[in-house]
């Protein structure tokens, strides 16, 4: 069973930075590269928003326009862990941040993720809270 654990959330002032981590367990070493992972967030009273996704095999990434240029994904396949570096944070970034995994993630799965289909994410973490004050 795949399990995801997020960490790194907290409170920060506008303009500050945070680095979120998502550690995955239960993924066999031989199948790490056939995994895609993504970050989502949900602010109070709003729908869950897709932020960024990464394909662990190729390192291909996609970002939502709302975070492009401010947030950066990176990965460590040996663990495997995905990181979300968040810079120039704004009050509107305040939300619960969730990590998700699509496992297995084939080429067709990745294409569907690129098209915004989040139904391919079959494992979810419990989330980590980010609060940005002005």
List keywords for this structure.
four-stranded antiparallel beta sheet; 11 strands; 134 residues; globular; mainly beta
Structure overview:
With 134 residues, the protein is mostly beta strands. The protein has one helix at residues 107-114; strands at 3-7, 10-13, 18-25, 36-42, 49-55, 61-63, 71-76, 81-86, 95-102, 123-124, 128-133. The strands form 2 sheets. Strands 2, 4, 5, 6, 9, 10 and 11 form a 7-stranded mixed sheet that branches. A 4-stranded antiparallel sheet has the order 1-3-8-7, with no helix packed on it. Strand 5 (49-55) and strand 6 (61-63) form a beta hairpin. The mean pLDDT is 94.
Largest sheet, in brief, is:
7 strands, mixed
Give the percentage of residues in beta strands.
Answer: over 45%
**Principal-axis shape:** globular
List SSEs in N-to-C order.
Answer: EEEEEEEEEHEE
- Give the N-to-C terminal Cα separation: 40 Å
Mean pLDDT: 94
Helix content: under 10%
Radius of gyration: 14 Å
**Total number of beta strands:** 11
**Structural class based on helices, strands and sheet pairing:** mainly beta
Poorly predicted spans: none
How many alpha or pi helices?
Answer: 1
Topology:
Blueprint: E1 3-7, E2 10-13, E3 18-25, E4 36-42, E5 49-55, E6 61-63, E7 71-76, E8 81-86, E9 95-102, H1 107-114, E10 123-124, E11 128-133
Parallel strand pairs: 2-11
Antiparallel strand pairs: 1-3, 3-8, 4-5, 4-9, 5-6, 7-8, 9-10, 9-11
What's this, in brief?
The protein is mainly beta and 134 residues long. Helices cover 6% and strands 46% of the residues. A hairpin with a 5-residue loop joins strand 5 and strand 6.
